[in-house]
Structures are given as C-alpha cells and as structure tokens.
Amino acid sequence: MSSQPPAHVFDATAANFESDVLQKSTTTPVLIDFWAEWCGPCKTLGPILEKLAGEYNGAFELAKVDVDKEQQLAAAFQIRSVPTVFLLVNGQPVDGFPGAVTEGELREFLKRNGIEPAAPALEGFDDPSAGATAAAPPPSDPHADVARLRAQVQAEPGKDELRLDLALALLRTGATDEARELLDGLPANLATDDRTVQARAHLEFASVLAGAPAPEALEQAIADDPDDLRSRHLLGVHRILGGDPEAGLDQFIEMLARNRDFEDGLPRRALIDAFQVVEDPAIVGRYRRKMSSLLF
User: Fold this and answer.
1) Bridge partners of 32?
2) What is the pTM assigned to this prediction?
3) Are residues 169 and 225 in the same domain?
4) How far apart are CA 148 and CA 153, in angstroms?
5) How far apart are CA 105 and CA 123, in angstroms?
6) How many domains does the chain have?
7) Cys bridge to 239: 114, 195, 248, 274, which one at CB 3.0-4.6 A?
C-alpha cells in the first residue's frame, strides 16, 4: 500500500474516477482493487496485483480504491467485502472476483479476459508457470503414478520437487495423511508453490468430510429439504473431491443463491476454497462469473 504506486498503478478516488478509470478503460483495461488498510488478505493480493501491473507493461492499469476513504465508490460497486477486484472495459465491469487469489490464478484471470503482457520479453516469464501447470495433469491411473513417484523419490531423495509430485499423486488416491506429511516437510521455496497451495486447499476440503454422511444420504436430505445448506455444502465437497467439480460448484452456487450469509458466509468461502482445488481454469472462470453475478 505504498504512497507512491509503481508504474501502471494509481489511487482511484471519486474525483478522478471518471477520467482516470472510466475513460481510461475505453482504450486500456482497468483492474479496480477495492481494499482496506485493516484487511489482511488485501495485503496478500495487493502486492501481486502491483507486481503484475508492472510486468504486463501497460497491458492493463491497476486502480486502487481504499474503501474507507472512498465510501461513495465502494457503495456504487456494492462492495460487501474486501479485497474485491473488478475488470472494466469500455466503462463497464466485464469480470471480477472477491477475495484473495494466487498469482497463478490472477494470471489465468487476465489471460481469460484477453490480457497478455505488452512487452514481448515478458512472454517468456509466463511460459514457465504455464508449463508447470501443464506438466501436472491428473494421471489416468493415480495409483500407478504413486508407485512410479515413490521409486523416483527413493532414487533421488534430495529432490524436493519429486516429493511435491508424490504428495499431489497421493491426494488423488485419497491418502491424505501421507500427503500432508510430505507437504509439511517441503522447504520454504516450495511451500508457496501454487501446486502446494492447491494441495493444502484439497486437504482442507478433505477434512470437512470427516464423519460426513455418504453422498446418497446427503442427496436425500436435500430432496427432503432444499434449504438444507449444510448437506449441500458436504455434498459439494464430496463431488469436487470425487472428480465432478461442476456438480460440486453447482451446490455451492445454490447455497449462495439461497442464503449468502449462511454460517457467516460459508457459501462464498466454499466457492473461493473450491477455486483453489479445481484444476480446470475454464470451469473456475465460469463459476467465478456466476458467483460475481450473485454477489454484485
């Protein structure tokens, strides 16, 4: 939250919003970051946004709005929580998301909206992260993958990347305890890797199901009472971890539509957590837009 923002980053106010945001968005996409000084997640997301604004070299402008100082703007965009990000093109919001996201997710958000780094030299910076994502698709036989990775870890015990790969493979077989031990033992440089963050989100999802009813029982409970949002939440987690992310996200969207304030905002939190677990960026993008349409 520097008082002197870097290039392509500026503070938006009610006074300059028309010229610096709305008019600017007719020629260059503008991301609006609604934040607050007291907001912990804002201090995680803000530096990532500012970093990418510099790296993308003017492919988009980042307008930062302090909701405490600019309550009129926050009210105009119906901001209910921070951080919240909107993308404006031609003076209109075309996409957005509430809550903090990872750098990888933010890059995917920009790419989905046709925003690529303006400087050709920066394109090579993006390739490694894209390649890392492409290098870890779910294997057709996760148990065989675990066996292969165990052998590789035994042959190269000092290669931490292999232990991360093994942890991810173990998660796909349901071996959450061993996966957690491997993740806990990773060095600091891998502990913040996007795949590690995704794996820990997966573990949090799995912990929700401890002692939970079977999917069939949850489906019956929902049939008996469509407003049973607790059952919808558990069924959604079952579906996502069971390999049917859209069915799971549908349950969370339905929760949000029925009662966004259920259990202190559980529907919104469940969606944000799910976006870190689901590996298909197209599905994540589609459901982010659904969530945004309900929230805003």
Assistant:
1) 63, 86
2) 0.53
3) no
4) 9
5) 17
6) 3
7) 248
87 within some domain: yes
Closest by CA to 32, choosing from 58, 12, 57, 59, is 12
Tens of each residue's pLDDT in the chain, 296 residues: 445 557 899 999 999 998 899 889 888 999 999 999 999 999 999 999 999 998 898 899 999 999 999 999 999 888 989 999 999 987 888 889 999 988 888 998 998 888 888 754 333 334 444 443 344 344 347 788 889 899 999 999 889 989 988 988 888 787 888 988 999 999 988 887 778 887 887 888 788 888 889 999 999 999 999 999 999 999 999 998 888 999 999 999 999 999 999 998 899 889 988 887 887 888 888 888 888 778 76
Measure the CA–CA gap between 103 and 165, rounded to whole angstroms.
20
Residues 228 and 157 in one domain: no
The answer to whether the beta carbons of residues 109 and 97 sit under 8 Å apart is yes
HEC profile of 201-269: HHHHHHHHCCCCCCHHHHHHHHHHCCCCHHHHHHHHHHHHHCCCHHHHHHHHHHHHHHCCCCCCCHHHH
Pick from 58, 36, 62, 35: nearest CA to 50:
62
Q: Which of 175, 200, 225 is the last residue of a domain?
A: 200
CA distance between the termini of the chain: 25
Domain span at residue 195 reads 138-200
What's the CATH number where 274 sits? 1.25.40.10
CA separation for the pair 43, 55 (Å, rounded):
19
167, 183 contact by CB (below 8 A) = yes
